[in-house]
Specification:
Elements (H helix, E strand, L loop, with lengths): L5 H8 L1 H12 L2 E5 L6 H6 L2 E5 L20 H11 L8 E5 L3 H13 L5 E5 L10 H20 L5 H23 L10 H10 L5 H15 L10 E7 L5 H9 L2 E7 L4 H4 L9 H11 L13 H11 L4 E7 L3 H16 L4 E6 L5 H19 L2
Parallel strand pairs: 1-2, 1-3, 3-4, 5-6, 5-7, 7-8
Helix pairs in contact: 1-8, 4-5, 6-12, 7-9, 7-12, 8-10, 10-15, 13-14
Length: 378
């Protein structure tokens, strides 16, 4: 990776330092967000910095008194970060409706992390395609706004919410522009570079992130398309921020050109549609975004969305990055695999625990690559 994306990499590697520095220079407060369905616009309008809880590969022994060992590695890792004081700068923690395992992680966090001064669980429809979903979610987002107003001790004007929507929409738009370069033959943006950009948008000040994205986009346009792309892959799964693992995939003759993950495209893919009612603007966007498996039952709109991503970005194969014991994605996998393969997209299933075992997985990725290369010969 060239130096063009170094700022994103530095932010990612020192994300807790970034949040502490932001607090010191702005005087603002920080809210730890435990799901990308949390409406950040409300927090930003309140003068807060939303900081997504990402993976960190923390030791798991501290979580054993609080949650089951059979919970997914991301649930255990997230709670470990809270218990070990990694988020001691965050005054609050909030979660939107998620899987039952992560809800227990949230409950344990709010009970046992001593620096938490406030917490909020935001209900959300399981079936976002329901004709009642938006009405319900608008009411929940309005309640969330009222709660945050109580936290900060003042009203949040509609104008501030609209400004926050514009800032977040711009971030989504700029990330889409960056990801569009990955459609190219021999893309001038690698999967690892795109991962750094999307991950850092989830915990930095959106205005600062937008400024850096604009700088990077201006320079990316000047890059030559001289990196051999090899086999084009997409990745599918829940949260994934294992940069070393993604770099391994791109080191063996492949390029990750797109993803369907909550740490990637599902976070930023669609903008909020501007409406007269600013709460409707915010709430509807989270119902309309590409759904995760916990929100996509029984209609499964995401299957066609994932296939379209693979086709639009000319992915030759898809790698499922499956966190062990992740019930929503494990339940989703068989039908989504069938849907992709029926439409000419071969798949590889990799299940991991706290960390991706790079050595064994490298062998499996290389074997998958070889299979795809052999298919190209016939």
């Amino acid at each position: 990776m060239s130096g063009l994306f170094d700022q994103f990499r530095t932010w990612y590697e020192k994300r807790h330092d970034y949040a502490r520095d932001w607090k010191a220079r702005t005087g603002g407060s920080v809210a730890a967000t435990m799901c990308t369905y949390v409406p950040e616009e409300v927090l930003i309008a309140a003068g807060m910095l939303p900081v997504r809880v990402l993976g960190a590969h923390e030791p798991q022994n501290v979580t054993e008194p609080h949650i089951f060992g059979m919970y997914c590695p991301f649930s255990r890792d997230s709670l470990a970060q809270g218990l070990l004081g990694r988020f001691d700068y965050a005054e609050g923690v909030t979660l939107s409706h998620s899987c039952i395992q992560y809800r227990q992680t949230f409950n344990s966090w709010k009970l046992h992390v001593p620096t938490v001064k406030w917490d909020y669980y935001l209900p959300m429809p399981n079936e976002v395609q329901s004709k009642f979903a938006k009405t319900l979610h608008r009411a929940e987002v309005a309640k969330f706004r009222t709660f945050i107003e109580g936290v900060i001790g003042r009203a949040i004007p509609d104008a501030d919410l609209r400004e926050a929507v514009e800032v977040v929409n711009e971030n989504r738009r700029l990330l889409r522009q960056l990801f569009d370069y990955r459609k190219e033959t021999n893309p001038r943006v690698t999967g690892v570079e795109a991962l750094y950009a999307s991950l850092t948008s989830q915990f930095t000040d959106k205005r600062e992130h937008n400024a850096e994205l604009k700088r990077v986009l201006a320079e990316v346009a000047k890059r030559p398309n001289d990196r051999d792309e090899g086999i084009r892959f997409m990745t599918i799964g829940s949260e994934n921020d294992d940069v070393a693992f993604m770099a391994m995939i791109e080191s063996v003759g492949a390029t990750i050109v797109i993803d369907d993950q909550c740490s990637g495209t599902r976070y930023f893919w669609n903008e909020a549609r501007i409406q007269d009612d600013v709460i409707a603007t915010i709430a509807d966007r989270y119902c309309e975004r590409p759904a995760c498996p916990t929100k996509d039952y029984p209609v499964h709109t995401r299957y066609d969305h994932v296939l379209k991503l693979a086709q639009d970005y000319n992915a030759r194969g898809a790698i499922f990055l499956q966190q062990k014991f992740c019930d929503p994605h494990e339940g989703d996998f068989p039908d989504l695999k069938e849907h992709l393969e029926a439409n000419g997209i071969p798949t590889l299933f990799l299940e991991f625990d706290l960390t991706n075992p790079i050595g064994p997985f490298r062998i499996r990725v290389e074997a998958f690559l070889e299979t795809l290369r052999e298919e190209e010969l016939f």
